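Progress note, project year one: complex with copper (II) ion.
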Amino acid sequence: MSGNNWLKWLSAVSVMFAAMGAANAGQPINMPVGVTDISADVFDLHMIAFWLCVWIAVAVFGVMFYSIFAHRKSKGHTPATFHESTTVEAIWTTMPFLILIALAIPATTTLVAMEDTSDYDLTVKITGYQWLWHYEYIDEGVDFYSVLKTPRDQINGLAPKGDNYLLEVDKELVLPVDKKVRFLITANDVNHAWWVPDLAVKKDAIPGFINEAWAKVHTTGTYRGQCAELCGRDHGFMPIVVRVVEQAEFDQFLADNTTLLNDGAEYAAVAE
Amino acid sequence: MSTVATDDHHDDHQESPYSIKRWLFTTNHKDIGTLYLWFSFIMFLIGGVMALVIRTELFEPGLQFVDPQFFNSMTTMHAIMMIFGVVMPAFTGLANWLIPMMVGATDMALPRMNNWSFWILPFAFAMMLSTLFMDGGGPAGGWTLYPPLVLQTGDALPFVILSMHFMGLSSIMGAINVIATILNMRAPGMTLMKMPLFVWTWLITAYLLIAVMPVLAGGITMLLTDKFFGTSFFNAAGGGDPVMFQHIFWFFGHPEVYILILPSFGVVSSIIPTFARKPLFGYASMVYATGSIAFLSFIVWAHHMFTVGMPLAGELFFMFATMLIAVPTGVKVFNWIATMWRGSMTFETPMLFALGFIIMFSIGGFSGLMLALAPVDFQYHDTYFVVAHFHYVLVPGSIFAIIAAVYYWLPKWCGNMYNEGLGKIHFWLSTIFVNLTFFPMHFVGLAGMPRRIPDYALQFSDYNMLATIGAFGFGFAQLLFLYLVIKAIRGGEKATSQVWENAEGLEWTLSSPPPYHSFTTPPVIK
Ligand code: HEM
Ligand SMILES: [Cu+2]
Ligand SMILES: [Cu+2]
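Model obtained:
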């Protein structure tokens, strides 16, 4: 293929990537930094790994593209005959190894921190059902179900879709700010996974198992997530909403909701 | 050596290509290779249509076309078709066509079993597809078949499991045949370390298949007994353990993903030296790298299960082991580039697909490295980021390598050249659309879109729309491939024995097309 053709096609490819950029009318394209120290660490690790990959790619593909342009028959390049070099092989086996060690260190530190569920202030038991969540503040005696609130008409295109389409629930999980909250996660029918990106918490909810996770949110606000393990027909329709509030407001919430205990009756059939 | 090209006293076995009996009863490696490759293409169309159903539903937010349950069975079936029906049979087809020619044999070692291992497949897949019409619909629990969800499948479940047993049986027989051929049928002088890399990578793949297909068979049989015979292997209420299935599945599943890529490494290692007009750099290290990848593939399975709640020590072990795979994978890529370095390159269609493979497979390798980091995988897992990862390694990875192989060896197989200009257009269309489809999936995945959902929140809409447009473009571009292949089979410029200026290897010493029985007298190996 002539150099001209190459340019034509390469520009087509660039136009394509430009189109992807242009399509980004303010829609998010990256992982959220989140609202806990852990989520920020995870984000940093993600970006370190990302840029590492980018630079390795630039270096490796740079050499490759140089070769593609310089060492071509149409330029009358005659082929060399070398096909071995133990030194070179040793270098490009060791180098990646060292880079990986450098990456493994922060990864290990973050992982160890994430798995440390000691010294918590509050425990919430989370149970996944087909297709809703149940929350229980174990020591406070408050529990309730949380179900998708988006009206059917919006899903079926009979009504305009709201801002939080598919990411809104009837009763939000309310948590106090700056407190270490431990989640005990399980399921009652099939596997689910409880995931809130801003908290960097994703843990499978598995019948017969109780998994642990935790979050200490440092900013009040509403954070949305979804079930992240295929759980059947309405897997796409069991969102999670966490509202993080000041301690006083949280206490008020608990006081107001001790009665919610019985409110779950309408879902009792599912719960059994 | 070229005198072996005509061997008449065996050739009369070849019946007319239009006789059904020839194809049904054939024990010839080339006929069986052809059957495998066409079967794979038909499955590619069926699996592709399923993908387009998925992408159509995801074109914009809201439920427009399909019921969520049917959507789930489309994602499940699409994966099963593509993995077991497209990539694996295509590789077996290539193995059938090429391995006897590459090692200087007449045919495969076990020709009757070869016939059987192919003819199981149409029945297995007919059964699998028929489940879509059963009460309760097709399987909809994902190709990973996790219990308890998969046990909610309706009438389809036993048929799904039986057909997967058949697929496994077929792969195991294919693998046994490859091993028997490579170990016993090499021409005198063809030592192991002289074998072309395609033969090496397939030898290792065949061992992986024999090691892990029975594990899958065991796992799905336990599902069957849990459902129908009152056992509780995976039922917590009965004292069982649903996570154990995931361990069994991924002990099969991770080596399986290498089964889906190792033969591609062999293909690319054949193509790059030809068009760079320079011998492959680091042949021995390529062999060792393949061996190490195969070994490591057995000790990384739980990187698919970081979120199930393993002990810290387990998570660390699987994270480190997974990161290690990047080393031999990197060695492969570096060797290919060193092969091109100071070569004398030309860019015929097979070379373009091979170069596309190197770049885009590496993109999938990079996201693989990111996924290996357990703390970040908690964010990536089960999102579109993972979907982007495995599609980069499988579509512009495995599928591109298969397409490259077809362009590269087609003139040898049918004796005619394909249309080079159209071939290049096929490459560029495929490359543009494959990126348009899968690159945006990284974005929506990172931004929080879970996988396996039929409807999504509004902030994911733009990139989903792009992905759908890309998917249709990619799908239609493959019709051009079909046209090109049929046209070359029907006629066209005659190919020489060597086909490509610098092609090396025994297959290029045979005529194009080669005699029905490849080497009836052993070739002389330099
Ligand atoms: C550098 C090499 C690679 C690494 C480090 C790697 C790593 C990973 C990890 C950690 C996951 C799990 C992600 C998650 O679910 O959270 C994954 C998923 C996957 N990978 Fe890779 N990978 C590599 C290469 C490959 C190759 C070569 C293939 C196949 C050709 C492949 C196919 C897949 C598939 C199909 C899945 C998704 C399975 C599923 O959940 O359905 N990967 N990979
Ligand atoms: Cu779910
Ligand atoms: Cu894996």
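Residues 262-272 of chain A have pLDDT under 50 and may be disordered.
Chain A touches chain B through 101 residues (CB under 8 Å).
No further modelling is planned for this target in the current period.
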